[in-house]
Amino acid sequence: MGVIKAVQNLLDISGEVTALWVTHRLEELEYANGAVYMEDGRVIMHGDAASISKFIKAKQSSYIDRINS
């Protein structure tokens, strides 16, 4: 997670910088102040990182349940 730490350090140095982070890794949401969830190029949900993470995990669980039944 060296890149994440470097971005955090940059943000700590200057409070006037906004960083936009695009990821497919849920664990990287831990470092975000907010998040946007998109499907097929459309915004489905936006809010705090914890809410988005919970939403994604519920979708994953539902999908796994469907393919296992």
From TrEMBL:
Signal peptide: none
InterPro entries to which the protein is assigned, alphabetical: Molybdenum_import_ModC, P-loop_NTPase
Cellular component terms per the entry's GO annotation: chloroplast envelope
Top-level taxon of origin: Eukaryota
Gene3D superfamilies: P-loop containing nucleotide triphosphate hydrolases
Name by which UniProt lists this protein: ABC transporter domain-containing protein
Organism: Gossypium barbadense (Sea Island cotton)
